[in-house]
């Protein structure tokens, strides 16, 4: 049967996986028509941007009614203070005082995890992402400027300066944070990450940072005299100037290094060294202590940089860990059959709630779950279903 | 039967009636909302920009001064309003040391390219545009689109073929390639 080429385009735009046959047809079309690829990519963008809008936003009748309200000239009335207004004012005052009291006592109790910066002297500063701030040491020395969710180190080390002062940045679950080091290297940290680095690099010396836990996307400033090294305990990644992503969560059994551009060398604890070219991934297995290299689609591994979660043929167990970190929830899976089921999926962390995400998975493989505060429990299959699958096939 | 942009403008200019404005509004609202959101990447802000535009358009009788293509006017007006908002937002958090100066230029190129596509989609024949918007922008399947619009799946299929053909014709390859500078890769291998 003849397949509609438009259906294949639509799949590309909606980011659905293609079959081999569809892929073959698409590649042929792309080859015949060089303008097609940018065209489809833009449509993909447009579709993606549209997902931010709700169906109700795109209801032109509703929007027109809202506009008509504003089109009417506003009635001009002099404001007279009526007796009831006085009471209303007093009541408002009471409510505001009461609410601020409530907020004051409850926010201090609920204690959501904060982004923290530990200075060389051991003191810890909490970072509020909504502010612009200069962080100073206990002696009043300016260390780093903070602008919302970015820390920018611009201290240039003086010749003859020998001491190296380190800071440790701690990014809790459900947050991301950006660092700009003194050499201009940019590091985007994913949720649940900890990184240690010097306040300033000395020219001509190795630039070393330690990814103590978590995942980070590095855009390293090129400097052929000072190699840049990322240490994770199990693997070291040495670079000259390049973009790459390292995922080294202590709770994960696999550590990944994905190279986007440039070149890196990955050295495992055991001394194995592998060199990566762009679009390759080096995977270190904590259990077997083996380091292997494979070809990959880079964008699948760095979706988090744009605030997204992308799963390509991933076991449900791994997916849950990513969801836990992205939304700061605890998920207990009591549905054993689901644990190793594999899924594809694309989600926007800022636009979709954890409920939205789980609902999508539940449409693929029905399951139900309960939520209790930050703990989500995926329930075992109903007994009947469990029983049915045990029956021998006819 | 819906009207072409030319007819809509003509009616506005001749009748100056609220009814002709309503038709104009229904025809453009969703598409310019998508366009505004594409620039500011903030649905609530985009909604404000679009409402302000329509309000201003009506209260100041902007339609009287339009001599060219209505769609081109509307898309450019929304773009200018959206960029004004972005500038204002940028000033509020402005910090020279963290500003990426090199980003300004590609932003405009990117917008030029997108504006061409958004306008081209908007200029599709009415039914064709609706089908294409449902499938390719709202992300619906052929089946869902057929149900939403009350047509058969075969009609959806025909409109999609036509929409892609018309768009590819309108977005002439040489013009489009000229505008293309972004280094992008489509996952085909």
From TrEMBL, chain A:
The chain crosses the membrane at residues 84-104. InterPro entries: FecR, FecR_C, Ferrdict_sens_TM. Gene3D superfamilies: 2.60.120.1440, 3.55.50.30. GO terms for molecular function: sigma factor antagonist activity. Residues 309-378 form the Protein FecR C-terminal domain. Residues 170-264 form the FecR protein domain. Keywords: Membrane, Transmembrane, Transmembrane helix. The keyword Transmembrane helix applies. PANTHER family: PERIPLASMIC SIGNAL SENSOR AND SIGMA FACTOR ACTIVATOR FECR-RELATED, PROTEIN FECR. This is FecR family protein. It comes from Sinomicrobium oceani.
UniProtKB/TrEMBL annotation, chain B:
Residues 25-90 form the RNA polymerase sigma-70 region domain. InterPro entries: RNA_pol_sigma-70-like (IPR039425), RNA_pol_sigma-70_dom (IPR014284), RNA_pol_sigma70_bacteroid (IPR014327), RNA_pol_sigma70_r2 (IPR007627), RNA_pol_sigma70_r4_t2 (IPR013249), RNA_pol_sigma_r2 (IPR013325), RNA_pol_sigma_r3/r4-like (IPR013324), WH-like_DNA-bd_sf (IPR036388). It comes from the Bacteria. GO terms for biological process: DNA-templated transcription initiation. Coiled coil: none annotated. GO terms for molecular function: DNA binding; sigma factor activity. Residues 115-166 form the RNA polymerase sigma factor 70 region 4 type domain. Keywords: Sigma factor, Transcription, Transcription regulation. Pfam families: Sigma70_r2 (PF04542), Sigma70_r4_2 (PF08281). NCBIfam families: Sig70_bacteroi1, sigma70-ECF. Belongs to the sigma-70 factor family. ECF subfamily. PANTHER family: RNA POLYMERASE ECF-TYPE SIGMA FACTO (PTHR43133), RNA POLYMERASE SIGMA-70 FACTOR ECF SUBFAMILY (PTHR43133:SF46). This is RNA polymerase sigma-70 factor, ECF subfamily. It comes from Sinomicrobium oceani.
